[in-house]
Amino acid sequence: MLAGIGLLAVAVLAGFVWWLVRYDLGGAHADVGGTPAPADAAATATTEHTSSTTQETTGVGEYVFDSATAPDVGTNCAAVSYGDVRDWLAEHPCDRVVRGLYETSAGGARALVSVVVVTMPDERRAAELRALTDTTGAGNVSDMVRDGSAEIDDAPQVAGGQYASDVTGTDVTIVEAAFFDGHRDGTLLADVTDEALLLATELRGG
Would you say which domain of life the source belongs to (predicted)? Predict the structure, then answer.
C-alpha cells in the first residue's frame, strides 16, 4: 500500500518537473527571436535609395530644365548629323557625342530644348566644327526628335527655332529650342538657349 502511494507521488512529481522545464525552455526561445522587422522594410529602403539617385530636373539659372528623355551617347557623329556638317564629320571624326533633350517653361510657355555636346580630338577641329554649325544652311548635329531617337507628343521642330553654340577646349555645345503650340517670342527663347548652354557640363558628365 505504502509502496503504491510512493510510486504515485514520484510519478506526479516527475510530471510536474517535466511541465516546468518545457515551459521555461519555450519562453527562452521566444526571447531569442526578438521582434521581427516588417517584411517590406528592406524593400522600402532599397526603393528610397534608388529614387534618391534619380535626377530628372536641372536648375542652372533662371530656368528649370526637365529631362525629356535619357541622353544619347555615341562616337559616330556623322551618323547623327545632316548636311555639310555630316560630310565634314565623316572626314574629321569626333571622339564623342552626347545629345540631351529638355523641357522648360518661359513666360508661361512650354519650350523644348536640344543640347548637344561634341568632343573633337583637338581644339582646332572643335573651332572648325563650331564655325560650320554656325553657318546657315550647313546642316547640324541632329536633335533627338528630328532623327526619331525620342518621341514627344506635339514636339516642335527645334532645328527651325532659336540657336546658340559655344566651344570650350575640345567640346562644342550646340543648343536649339522652340516653343510648343506655335508660341513665338524670339527674345525669350534666346534667353532660354543661352542658359541651356550651361547644361553641357552636366550632360558630358561633369
Answer: Bacteria
Q: Considering only CA atoms, give the Rg of the chain.
A: 34
Q: Among 181, 176, 59, 199, which Cα is nearest to 108's?
A: 181
Judge whether 167 and 125 are in contact, CB under 8 Å. Answer: no
Query: Which residues are registered as beta bridge partners of 176?
Result: 114, 163
Coil vs helix vs strand at 141: strand
pLDDT digit string (tens) for 151-177? 999 999 999 899 999 999 999 999 999
- The closest alpha carbon to 130, from 74, 98, 85, 97, belongs to 85
CB within 8 A of 4, min separation 6: which ones?
none
The x, y and z cell numbers of residue 7, run together, are 510510486
Q: Does residue 87 sit within a domain?
A: yes
Report the number of distinct structural domains present in the chain.
1
Model-wide pTM > 0.90:
no
- What is the span of the domain harbouring residue 84? 57-203
Mean per-residue pLDDT, 44-67: 54
Give domain status of residue 20, yes or no: no
User: What is the chain's length?
Assistant: 206
Asked if the structure places residue 119 within a domain, the reply is yes
- Which amino acid belongs to residue 18? W
